[in-house]
């Protein structure tokens, strides 16, 4: 079985993680769990970007040696991924020996094949973004004459003038190749607006070269260039190669062939140019052919805080740890509530507005009222009327059939939406079935049926509801793994949760099976 390889960006360890970082990892985790739960072998990679000027400046400000500094900050990332139940298979750090080896081997190979040249360059550097802007690019981006103190077109912070010599990779030589590749693969970058952005960028000339080194005397925190001791590797060239390192590239050919290429590379919209222009050109230069390019680059939107950009200077950076352990402190499934909010609130690809009020109202409407109520009412009635035993039932009533049909259509809906990263659509579909099941309770009135002489209708209704809970738990598993496992446990079922394919088997519970205690999933807290 070939592997489904999924990646997230590597996060800079100049500071602790914030909600933006957690967004990408939660989305990638939902995708990874979805694929695993559909019976696939998955290799899910995340990690940290630990070199470059930005990190060495942060280490200097903290009065620490850069390696000591990154070793400390990386722990905040690792512990957050644990808190959020991120199920990555590998965590790569760009300071690891395995990565240094691959970067140096790739550089040597490009140099030996005559694909690198040593040149002098001058231009503008954005340290926070670790991105170089040529005067031509800058003029194009700001659509005006370049002022004497220009701002970065991407993050609007002041640029630094640089003039130095370095090693270069040809960009313009590969421009036609990339344009044709995109023409042939119009769904390679998504959403479509992001594809259009890159495609139109490629209508004009790219800068002739990408400088892939930095002089040691200016930036010494980087991977040494093996054939030129005066230089270290440019942090983006170093970081992008991580996606190859983790597959076993140049080290373990069998593993590389099994893992490569990535099925989906999830990134934020601000790092699209690096992933959709530099990255394929680097791969092309390394001899990776068109049929072996990553399959999809998906650029998600940004979370704003209310209507504001999240930034250090505005002092509005949100720490996911605070949301989960302080704001949602009375919730036993706080991390899942946070995951649900991120995936349900905005359609993946669009920008979103983050606030505690938005979490609160999404939580109240969808989770406490709809899902929590359905689970609690169903299992309380099963307890009261059937001693918590799954009853025998036939499914020949139209109302029962309507709810069953809606529930067993969910796996098909997931197959259409999740590979397209339409997470909020998939969740909306699950929650529609949950609402339908709550309406079904109101219409069928099990408390009335309990007074009738024959228990058949009561049993059919309770069985339809418990089967719906079973399907709901399976479907929610990629998004809210702990909540799904708790519903599963309350149904008296053993782990692992059934696969997405098994969700459509109806009935899927064993008659006579005993359900267990059912504490409320989402207690309504007074805040
Ligand atoms: N180190 C580079 C990536 C190298 S990948 C080979 C980097 N790191 S980062 O830490 O600055 O950003 C990582 C990711 O966080 C980016 O995908 C970025 O889009 C995302 N986000 C940063 N702020 C964000 C929001 N406010 N909202 C959503 N995502 C945001 O870039």
Report what the structure shows.
- By secondary structure, this protein is of the alpha/beta class.
- Helix 2 packs across helix 3, helix 13 crosses helix 17 and helix 19 runs antiparallel to helix 20.
- The model has no long low-confidence stretch (mean pLDDT 95).
- The protein has 21 helices and 14 strands.
- 48% of the residues lie in helices and 14% in strands.
- The strands form 4 sheets. Strands 3-2-1-11-12-7 form a 6-stranded parallel β-sheet, with helices on both faces. A 4-stranded antiparallel β-sheet has the order 5-4-6-8. A two-stranded antiparallel sheet has the order 9-10.
- Strand 1, helix 1 and strand 2 form a beta-alpha-beta unit.
- The longest helix is centred in the C-terminal third of the chain and has 31 residues.
- The structure holds 5'-O-[(L-methionyl)-sulphamoyl]adenosine.
Summary of the model, kept short:
The protein is an alpha/beta fold. The chain has 21 helices and 14 strands.
Number of DSSP helical runs: 21
Q: Percent of residues in beta strands?
A: 5-15%
Percent of residues in helices: 40-55%
Major β-sheet profile: 6 strands, parallel
**Assembly context of the chains:** single chain
| Sequence of strands across the biggest β-sheet | 3-2-1-11-12-7
Which structural category fits the helices and strands?
alpha/beta
What is the CA-based Rg, rounded?
A: 26 Å
Q: What's the rounded overall pLDDT mean?
A: 95
Morphology: elongated
The count of strands amounts to: 14
Which cofactor or ligand species appear? 5'-O-[(L-methionyl)-sulphamoyl]adenosine
- The poorly predicted ranges are none
Q: Quote the distance from N terminus to C terminus.
A: 50 Å
């Amino acid at each position: 079985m070939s592997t489904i390889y999924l990646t997230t960006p590597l996060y800079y360890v100049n500071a602790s993680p914030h909600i933006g970082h957690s967004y990408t990892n939660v989305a990638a985790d939902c995708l990874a769990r979805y694929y695993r739960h559909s019976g696939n072998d998955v290799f899910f990679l995340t990690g940290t970007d630990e070199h470059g000027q930005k990190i060495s400046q942060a280490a200097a400000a903290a009065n620490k040696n850069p390696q000591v500094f990154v070793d400390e900050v990386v722990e905040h990332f690792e512990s957050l991924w644990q808190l959020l139940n991120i199920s990555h298979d590998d965590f790569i750090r760009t300071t690891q020996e395995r990565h240094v080896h691959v970067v140096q081997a790739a550089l040597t190979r490009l140099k030996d094949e005559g694909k690198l040249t040593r040149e002098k360059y001058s231009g503008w550097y954005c340290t926070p973004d670790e991105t170089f802007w040529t005067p031509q690019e800058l003029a194009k981006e700001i659509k005006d004459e370049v002022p004497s103190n220009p701002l970065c077109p991407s993050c609007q912070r002041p640029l630094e003038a640089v003039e130095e010599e370095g090693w270069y990779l040809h960009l313009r030589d590969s421009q036609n190749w990339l344009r044709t590749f995109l023409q042939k693969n119009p769904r390679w970058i998504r959403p479509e607006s992001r594809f259009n952005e890159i495609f139109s960028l490629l209508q004009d000339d790219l800068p002739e070269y990408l400088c892939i080194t930095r002089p040691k005397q200016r930036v010494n925190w980087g991977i040494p260039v093996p054939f030129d001791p005066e230089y270290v590797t440019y942090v983006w060239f170093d970081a992008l190669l991580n996606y190859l390192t983790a597959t076993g590239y140049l080290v373990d050919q069998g593993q590389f062939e099994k893992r490569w290429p990535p099925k989906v590379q999830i990134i934020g919209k601000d790092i699209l140019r690096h992933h959709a222009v530099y990255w394929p050109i680097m791969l092309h230069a390394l001899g990776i052919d068109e049929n072996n390019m990553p399959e999809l680059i998906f650029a998600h939107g940004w979370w704003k805080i209310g209507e504001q950009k999240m930034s250090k200077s505005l002092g509005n950076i949100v720490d996911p740890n605070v949301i989960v352990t302080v704001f949602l402190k009375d919730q036993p499934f706080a991390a899942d509530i946070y995951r649900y909010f991120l995936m349900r609130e905005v359609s993946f690809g669009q920008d979103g507005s983050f606030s505690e009020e938005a979490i609160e109202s999404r939580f109240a409407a969808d989770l406490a009222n709809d899902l929590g109520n359905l689970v609690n009412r169903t299992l309380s009635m099963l307890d009261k009327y059937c001693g918590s035993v799954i009853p025998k039932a036939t499914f020949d009533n139209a109302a029962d059939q309507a709810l069953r049909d809606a529930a067993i259509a969910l796996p098909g809906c997931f197959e259409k939406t999740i590979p397209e990263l339409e997470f909020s659509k998939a969740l909306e579909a699950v929650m529609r079935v949950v609402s339908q099941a709550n309406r079904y309770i109101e219409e069928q009135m099990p408390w009335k049926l309990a007074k009738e002489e024959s228990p058949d209708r009561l049993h059919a209704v309770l069985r339809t509801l418990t089967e719906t809970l079973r399907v709901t738990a399976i479907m929610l598993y990629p998004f809210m793994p702990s909540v799904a496992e708790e519903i599963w446990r309350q149904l008296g079922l053993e782990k692992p949760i059934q696969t997405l394919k098994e969700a459509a088997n109806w009935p899927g519970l064993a008659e006579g099976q005993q359900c267990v205690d059912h504490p409320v999933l989402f207690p309504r807290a007074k805040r």
